[in-house]
Amino acid sequence: MIARYSRPEMAALWTSQARYERWMQVELAACEAMALRGEVPMEDFEAVKANAPKAFTAEDAERIEEIEKVVKHDVIAFLTFVEEKVGPPARWLHLGLTSSDVLDTSFALLLKEAGEMILGKLDEAMVAVRDRAFEHKHTPMIGRSHGIHAEPITFGLKMASWYAELSRGRERLARAIENVAYGKISGAVGTFANVAPEVEAHVCKTLGLRPDPVSTQVVSRDRHAEFFNALASLGASIERFSVEVRHLQRTEVREAEEPFTPGQKGSSAMPHKRNPILTENMTGLARLLRGYASTAMENVALWHERDISHSSVERVIGPDATILAHFMLHRFTNLVRDMRVYPERMRENLELTGGLVYSQRLLLELARRGIPRQTAYVFVQRNAMRFYEEGMDFLEALLADDELRKYLSDEEIRSVFDLGYHTKHVDTIFERVFGEA
Q: Is 422 a catalytic residue?
């Protein structure tokens, strides 16, 4: 499913060719810095720059992997290949560097690029949610707690809460991208013994990264854990929205549902079915993102200055988590845009309990008249229970309660059943979420 989606720009980030291209960018930037410092002959750097591959082909990747089968080291295989292309001047590449200088700095580049693509897709999702929120700003429906009818809200308010949550997710992800976009060119244990800090500064500036203030042989993995946790948190939000749609699509609720396109089939056995497959799918994918985040947390505790237990993990979770998050946002955006909403059904469900949803306002009105709260609670609850036990309309039960009518007139009781009382602050909430515009 994800493979079929494969947005070209995101999938292309994680090919072998793209990885080698970014390794080359790091090596060239480091070599340039050393040439500017007089540590590498400028003419040799120019020769390297002119002859080193800028774009790697599938054939190049195959050749590097062929070399790796012999040397059993990916960076050495890469440098061997470049030397084949460049000739003797290539001896100046990787001067004073360790493999992680190249791997971690290029990984930061990839995560930054992938994160920015995800932010772009998140912006699309937020626009879709905002549009539907304003469309249904004043569409009344029942709010539920514990799955039980509570008090009236609007569908627009529900969607506004989605927008606010996505806004927080965007802030977290943007901050995580900033914190993961750190490179290091500090040598085998981060001491700059064989490469000057100025080289690192030049490389990072050239590549749009920041130098890690203090690294070991690697950039500390708390940065990466933050990034993958930001993706997992975003996935959890999409899961929350998806679960909501799944509940609203249930046959006995049917207030909203996923798009169902012409020719689509819901079940191989039951032709009547319209199953919430998109939202169920996103619920499952959110679990994967949480798994990747948990694994990223395990990568933080490396041995001493470095081991490679994180390496195999990141080769999987780097592409998988970013492609997955990008895909989920793509699918969620389309879901929101095309979601079917049924205001009439919302109104029917709102009235399903015969006015019980106005019980709190009645309780408050009694309390304002000096009746002890617990006494007032008994008045309201005993009439509410008649709906459950006798099927009696709540208003009818209240009007038949002579004891209650000692405190409230028929007109005052009826005035409690006012939907507008519950939605009078919708505009205020929207301004808080979306701004005055």
A: no
Can you tell me the mean pLDDT for 79-88? 96
Q: How long, in residues, is the chain? A: 437
Domains in the chain and their CATH numbers?
Answer: 1-95 (1.10.275.10), 96-347 (1.20.200.10), 356-416 (1.10.40.30)
How many of the other CB atoms lie within 10 Å of CB of 66?
11
Residues in Cβ contact with 387 at an 8 Å cutoff, skipping those fewer than 6 apart: 353, 354, 356, 393, 394, 397
CA pair distance 210, 336, nearest whole angstrom: 37
Interaxial angle between packed helices 99-135 and 197-207, expressed in degrees from 0 to 180 and rounded to the nearest 10: 30
pLDDT of residue 261: 85
Q: What angle do CA 314, 232, 205 make, to 5 degrees?
A: 55
Quote the distance between the C-alpha of residue 68 and its chain's center.
36
Confidence grade of residue 9 (pLDDT, cut at 50, 70, 90): confident
**Average pLDDT score over residue span 16-40:** 97
Between CA 118 and CA 115 the distance in angstroms is 5
- How far separated are the first and last CA of the chain, in Å rounded? 39
Q: How far is CA 410 from CA 117, 151, 351, 423, in A?
A: 60, 22, 20, 24
The answer to whether 10 and 114 have CB atoms below 8 angstroms apart is yes
Q: Are 289 and 324 a contacting pair, CB within 8 Å?
A: yes
Which residue, 114, 159, 113, is CA-closest to 136?
Answer: 159
Q: Which of 146, 268, 312, 409 is catalytic?
A: 146
**Catalytic residue check, 267:** yes
Residue 18 corresponds to which amino acid?
A
Tally DSSP H helices, then E strands, for the chain: 19, 6
DSSP 373-387: HHHHHHHHHHHHHHH
Determine the Cα–Cα distance for residues 334 and 279; give it in Å rounded to an integer: 11
Tokens 């701004």 found at: 435
Tokens of 160: 């506004």
> What pLDDT, in 10s, does the model give residues 201-223?
999 999 999 999 999 999 999 99
Say if residues 183 and 200 touch (Cβ distance below 8 Å).
yes
For residue 341, the cross-strand partners are: 256
pTM for this structure?
A: 0.93
> What value, to the nearest 5°, has the Cα angle with vertex 286 and ends 280 and 289?
150
147, 151, 152, 157 alpha-carbon torsion, rounded to 10°: -70
Task: State the catalytic residue, choosing from 6, 73, 267, 425.
Answer: 267
pLDDT at residue 7 tops 70: no
